[in-house]
Amino acid sequence: MVFSRVAIALKTTIYIDGYNLYYSRLRGTSFKWLDVVALFRDVILAVQDPSAEVVAVKFFTAPIKATYARHGAESESAQKRYHRALKLRHPELVEVIQGFHILGPSSLPRYVPGQLPSKADLHQVWMIEEKQTDVNLALHIYRDATRSQCEQLVICSNDSDLEPALQMVRSDAPGIAIGLVMPLRDTAKEQGVYSNKRLTALADWVRHHIRDEELGAAQLPTHVPSRKKPVSKPSHW
């Protein structure tokens, strides 16, 4: 559905759930060096709401821990380079807002096909948890809406944890438009993955997927200039 108030230039802030975007759409692809401004402002909003005036892009994430990352210290370095490249490319727009990860031992029931979990069959595992990212995302959405920092919120997430925040925006700032961009493949339905109905019910418009060609058209330059040496795309990306 194309937003109906295209004639009005709505001041728009884009909120990106970095964890959800990565694991639901970018993981396993060659599109990780993504220019989020080019994708959301110049590709998606150019069609969905071409008059929108993007005033901020907020990227919510947490620093990778090299101790459990697939590529170790190189994964940690790659993430730092990516965040730096985004801010260098769009210094007036992009803000990276970070939570943190915790890693520790935990006891969980062993999985046995066809059986319910049993507390009598617990096993020690490493538990990795992302902290504060969802809270930061929800609070920024609500604060920006109620302080009239923007007139339209465009949110990239399929996480139902955002439902209370969007309900409160609808109640406390009813004039704010809400757009949702689901970080899903265009083949998601065929794989049994769907847009979260609890979120879509609260939106003015919804984009249900992001296509490969859109991601491919919105990549950062391989080498992003800086005052010193360029910030380069990681070799394993």
CATH class: Alpha Beta
The SSE order reads EHHEHEEEHEHEHEHEE
Mean pLDDT: 91
Distance between the termini: 33 Å
Sum up the structure in keywords.
237 residues, alpha/beta, Rossmann fold, 6-stranded parallel sheet, two-stranded antiparallel ribbon, 7 helices, 10 strands
Give an account of the 3D structure.
The chain is of the alpha/beta class. The chain has one domain (11-98, 132-232): 5'-nuclease (Rossmann fold), CATH 3.40.50. It is built from seven helices and ten strands. Helix 3 links the parallel strand 2 and strand 3 (94-98). Helix 4 (133-146) packs parallel to helix 5. The chain is globular. The model has no long low-confidence stretch (mean pLDDT 91).
Tell me the layout of helices and strands.
Blueprint: E1 11-17, H1 18-26, H2 36-48, E2 53-61, H3 73-89, E3 94-98, E4 100-109, E5 122-131, H4 133-146, E6 152-156, H5 163-172, E7 177-181, H6 197-200, E8 205-207, H7 212-216, E9 223-224, E10 231-232
Parallel strand pairs: 1-2, 1-6, 2-3, 6-7, 7-8
Antiparallel strand pairs: 4-5, 9-10
Quickly describe the structure.
The protein is of the alpha/beta class and about 240 residues long.
